[in-house]
């Protein structure tokens, strides 16, 4: 039980750390006086690790047991946190980018290793329950992260045109970043010590290494030989890119005067006003908008519970087509109509993001002619879409505004809808029970 609790804490930790990127993008924009594109490089530095590290991580875990891989991952994450601490104290943006990349590299290895371990620690009859429970804590982490990050990073910080960021506000934001990653480093260090002390106990329950000889190049070639692995990889690329881009620009979007920046509409909704801790000042500050970003990820958390029930009753491909179609329509509303109501619509997109990643993942595994290991590794590599799409969205927002930038994720969701419709017509490969999809 203690071993499973520790593994579940890993799921929470990587969800929490990943969602801190959202308030961090808004914070570095003000701290370092960056353009939207430059600020979005924070997301790129983090998610590019998936493109570079996923395949090596898959080979590492395949050739060794899960626990040594987790120890390597935790050590890498500690190194990333230490670089973030140096970056915050020296106020150097390039070091922030380096720290995020190192941190995400550790998380990538952790995801590849922890999913099978969570499923294996206990009675085999309840493996799916354990993995689902662990992934639920991942969602809890993504809900809490943006809120706490807004509290620590965005106090007094404003990035609207004409606003001046004082040295005191800049220093306070850097202290908040330093504080957050210091305690994250401490948490990871405690987990590292636990896994070192409980190594034999955890390894006894862990799945045996596969000792695969295909290597990185062979695994990649096998995945590229399958049309559906490629199609699924593109779908994951577009989905993660859209989800991350919306999240990282959400606070800036809500803070715009054309949305909530000069509006008291959120204050008129009692629970929302209390959640955002709105003050008596007219409009919504950047920090208050940053707290609202948690609702975007909270919608995904709630949607996973509802979506699980729906997936048990309805065809997964058609359900994915409906969810992606609704998400595309919501982005179109924000782009074409905008206004105060667009803020509520944008936050609600998270609810429809909820089932997309695991459903795309499993639909692809079922249809790919490549092995599950090769297909899964390739799909995890495609998470690099979180590095590519946000700068593109930043370029559009920089030239045409934050609402206009929603046209980019809208196009991504339209393509995902096409993927879902195609999946309804494609043949399913006969194979053993599909591997569980990691919640990124």
Description:
There is one protein chain. The chain has a single domain (2-425), classed as MFS general substrate transporter like domains (Growth Hormone, Chain: A), CATH 1.20.1250. Helix 3 (36-63) runs antiparallel to helix 16, helix 6 runs antiparallel to helix 12 (286-311) and helix 9 crosses helix 16 (372-381). The relative contact order is 0.15. Helices cover 77% and strands 0% of the residues. By secondary structure, the chain is mainly alpha-helical. One of its GO terms (molecular function) is transmembrane transporter activity. It comes from Sphingomonas gilva. The chain crosses the membrane at residues 43-62, 69-92, 98-121, 133-154, 174-197, 228-254, 294-311, 318-338, 344-365, 377-396, 402-423. One of its GO terms (cellular component) is plasma membrane.
């Amino acid at each position: 039980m203690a071993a499973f609790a520790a593994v579940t804490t890993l799921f929470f930790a990587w969800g929490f750390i990943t969602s801190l990127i959202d308030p961090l993008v808004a914070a570095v924009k003000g701290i370092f006086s960056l353009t939207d594109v430059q600020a979005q490089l924070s997301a790129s530095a983090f998610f590019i690790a998936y493109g570079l590290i996923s395949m090596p991580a898959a080979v590492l875990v395949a050739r060794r047991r899960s626990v040594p891989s987790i120890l390597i991952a935790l050590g890498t994450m500690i190194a990333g946190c230490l670089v973030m601490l140096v970056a915050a104290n020296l106020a150097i943006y390039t070091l922030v980018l380096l720290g995020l990349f190192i941190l995400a590299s550790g998380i990538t290895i952790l995801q590849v290793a922890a999913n099978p371990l969570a499923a294996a620690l206990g009675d085999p009859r309840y493996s799916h329950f354990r993995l689902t429970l662990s992934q639920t804590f991942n969602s809890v982490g993504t809900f809490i992260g943006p809120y706490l990050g807004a509290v620590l990073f965005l106090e007094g910080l404003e990035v609207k045109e004409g606003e001046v960021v004082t040295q005191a506000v800049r220093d306070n934001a850097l202290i908040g970043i330093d504080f957050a990653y210091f305690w994250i480093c401490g948490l990871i260090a405690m987990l590292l010590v636990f896994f070192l002390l409980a190594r034999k106990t955890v390894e006894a329950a862990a799945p045996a290494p596969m000792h695969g000889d295909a290597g990185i190049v062979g695994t990649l070639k096998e995945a590229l030989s399958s049309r559906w692995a490629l199609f699924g990889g593109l779908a994951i690329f577009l989905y993660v890119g859209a989800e991350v881009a919306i999240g990282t620009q959400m606070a800036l979007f809500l803070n715009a005067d054309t949305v909530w920046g000069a509006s008291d509409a959120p204050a008129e909704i009692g629970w929302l006003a209390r959640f955002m801790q709105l003050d008596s000042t007219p409009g919504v500050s950047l920090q208050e908008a940053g707290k609202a970003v948690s609702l975007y990820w909270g919608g995904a958390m709630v949607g996973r519970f509802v979506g699980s029930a729906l997936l048990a009753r309805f065809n997964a491909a058609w359900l994915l087509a409906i969810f992606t179609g609704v998400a595309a329509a919501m982005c179109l509303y924000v782009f074409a109509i905008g206004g105060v109501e667009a803020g509520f619509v944008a936050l609600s997109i998270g609810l429809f993001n909820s089932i997309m990643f695991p459903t795309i993942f499993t639909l692809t595994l079922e249809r790919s002619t490549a092995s599950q290991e090769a297909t899964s590794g390739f799909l995890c590599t495609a998470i690099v879409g979180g590095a590519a799409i946000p700068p593109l969205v930043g370029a559009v927002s920089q030239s045409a505004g934050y609402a206009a930038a929603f046209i980019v994720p809208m196009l991504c969701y339209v393509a995902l809808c096409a993927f879902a419709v195609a999946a309804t017509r494609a043949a399913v490969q006969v194979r053993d029970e599909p591997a569980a999809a990691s919640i990124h």
